[in-house]
From TrEMBL:
<keyword id="KW-0489">Methyltransferase</keyword>
<feature type="binding site">
    <location>
        <position position="77"/>
    </location>
    <ligand>
        <name>S-adenosyl-L-methionine</name>
    </ligand>
</feature>
<dbReference type="InterPro" id="IPR002903">
    <property type="entry name" value="RsmH"/>
</dbReference>
<dbReference type="GO" id="GO:0071424">
    <property type="term" value="F:rRNA (cytosine-N4-)-methyltransferase activity"/>
</dbReference>
<keyword id="KW-0949">S-adenosyl-L-methionine</keyword>
<keyword id="KW-0963">Cytoplasm</keyword>
<dbReference type="InterPro" id="IPR029063">
    <property type="entry name" value="SAM-dependent_MTases_sf"/>
</dbReference>
<dbReference type="InterPro" id="IPR023397">
    <property type="entry name" value="SAM-dep_MeTrfase_MraW_recog"/>
</dbReference>
<dbReference type="Pfam" id="PF01795">
    <property type="entry name" value="Methyltransf_5"/>
</dbReference>
<keyword id="KW-0808">Transferase</keyword>
<dbReference type="GO" id="GO:0070475">
    <property type="term" value="P:rRNA base methylation"/>
</dbReference>
<feature type="binding site">
    <location>
        <position position="98"/>
    </location>
    <ligand>
        <name>S-adenosyl-L-methionine</name>
    </ligand>
</feature>
<feature type="binding site">
    <location>
        <position position="50"/>
    </location>
    <ligand>
        <name>S-adenosyl-L-methionine</name>
    </ligand>
</feature>
<feature type="binding site">
    <location>
        <begin position="31"/>
        <end position="33"/>
    </location>
    <ligand>
        <name>S-adenosyl-L-methionine</name>
    </ligand>
</feature>
<dbReference type="GO" id="GO:0005737">
    <property type="term" value="C:cytoplasm"/>
</dbReference>
<comment type="function">
    <text>Specifically methylates the N4 position of cytidine in position 1402 (C1402) of 16S rRNA.</text>
</comment>
<protein>
    <recommendedName>
        <fullName>Ribosomal RNA small subunit methyltransferase H</fullName>
        <ecNumber>2.1.1.199</ecNumber>
    </recommendedName>
</protein>
Amino acid sequence: MEHISVLLNESIDMLQIKEDGIYVDCTLGRGGHSSEILKRLTSGHLYAFDCDQNAIDESMPRLKAIGDQFTLIHSPFENLKSELAKRGVNFVDGIFMDLGVSSPQFDDAQRGFSYRWDARLDMRMDQSQELDAYVVVNTYDKEDLIRILKRYGEEPFAQKIADKICKAREIAPIETTFELVDVIKSALPAAVLRKKGHPAKQTFQAIRIEVNHELEQLETVLHDGLTMLNPHGRMAVITFHSLEDRIVKEIFKEVAVAKKVNKRLPQVGTENLEYQLVNRKPVLASSEELEMNNRAHSAKLRGIEKKG
């Protein structure tokens, strides 16, 4: 399935790209957003991160066809500050993130991200790292499994699923995605199995987030990225589930919204804040985009700007 960039025009508009600016795409993927940023640069430069070497290899020709004022960096985006410092860049005009797993990663059965195809349990965005889904499922103790299923999957049956995983792996390791799906199904009540939506969705999400340290990396890159913005520089972030969106919303709120001491008094202190929100409510996909791209249903775009 072809990867369609979500909220593409809205993201580019939010960044307010200057032709001589320095921009960072923290989530290169297949280069959809990066291409649009690059098209708007003349003397500026784009730095794009991805921990998936396949994404870098596939995006390179697409970007080369537009211009050569870009640098691709094979690294997790939590290394934003250190990797750019190596290249003499300490401040930028815009930072963009499109979080979550790209369609090509989900659609490559061998990557083990999806419950739709049978494959070895993997789920690594960076295939050079050691920790994968097989290790999580087969070596984490029950309490750790419960913790990640509750925290990262918001799974109400976390304890029952963890019980079943531990019992199943005593007999033999859980090797594949379909084996894990069967174990998950065995832990759930019939009424839950009859509901719309795949019963393994929340568990797979939780394991994927644990394997890739997604939420910890997100917090790091948000804090570091905000300190790197030039005056009037902007950060735009697309999230796909409530855990990510909550982190983005709270971190933006911390630096851009004055704390109310008394509801009956006017809000004070906004003049001392270094940042301002671009949008108080997240930008959602249009009905036209939703018709074309199902992945856009859960997408939320938030923006923040450093004051001048």
